[in-house]
């Protein structure tokens, strides 16, 4: 059993940066795929990035602006978000799954068993 807790979301101006954290307990994340998802108001939850075995994938709209990293010693995964845009406004979730290799992560909500509670990111001037 894995428990995930996100943090780091807040109000930020366009062009600003945020780093979201996803802290895990209950099991080490070393052998888990980690996905970051977001859900904007009135929209479905979408996968924006997935990391597994030193491979990381990003959807086009965040590629070059968002970066996943892991701190295995702290059992924490980060999502560094730069050059934020108003359309990045959403609740951001991290998710973990042991037997998944990120295939189709963009719509892979059902692939992940463990989810955090989400953290709100608002990009506005």
Describe this protein's structure.
The chain is mainly beta. It contains no helices and eleven strands. The chain is globular, with a radius of gyration of 13 Å. It starts with a strand and ends with a strand.
Chain-wise SSE layout:
Layout: E1 3-7, E2 11-12, E3 18-25, E4 33-39, E5 46-52, E6 55-58, E7 66-71, E8 76-81, E9 90-97, E10 114-115, E11 119-123
Parallel strand pairs: 2-11
Antiparallel strand pairs: 1-3, 3-8, 4-5, 4-9, 5-6, 7-8, 9-10, 9-11
Cα shape: globular
By DSSP (H or I, 4+ residues per run), the number of helices equals: 0
Strand residue percentage: over 45%
- Percent range of helical residues: under 10%
Radius of gyration: 13 Å
Summarize this structure briefly.
By secondary structure, this protein is mainly β.
């Amino acid at each position: 059993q894995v428990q995930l807790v996100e943090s780091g979301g807040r109000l930020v101006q366009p062009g600003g940066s945020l780093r979201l954290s996803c802290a895990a307990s209950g099991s080490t994340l070393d052998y888990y795929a980690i996905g970051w998802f977001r859900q904007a108001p009135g929209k479905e939850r979408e996968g924006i990035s997935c990391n597994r075995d030193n491979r990381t994938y990003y959807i086009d709209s965040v590629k070059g602006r968002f970066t996943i990293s892991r701190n295995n010693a702290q059992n924490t995964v980060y999502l560094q978000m730069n050059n934020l845009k108003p359309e990045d406004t959403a609740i951001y979730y991290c998710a973990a799954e042991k037997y998944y290799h990120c295939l189709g992560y963009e719509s892979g909500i059902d692939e992940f068993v463990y989810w955090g509670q989400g953290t709100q990111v608002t990009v506005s001037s």
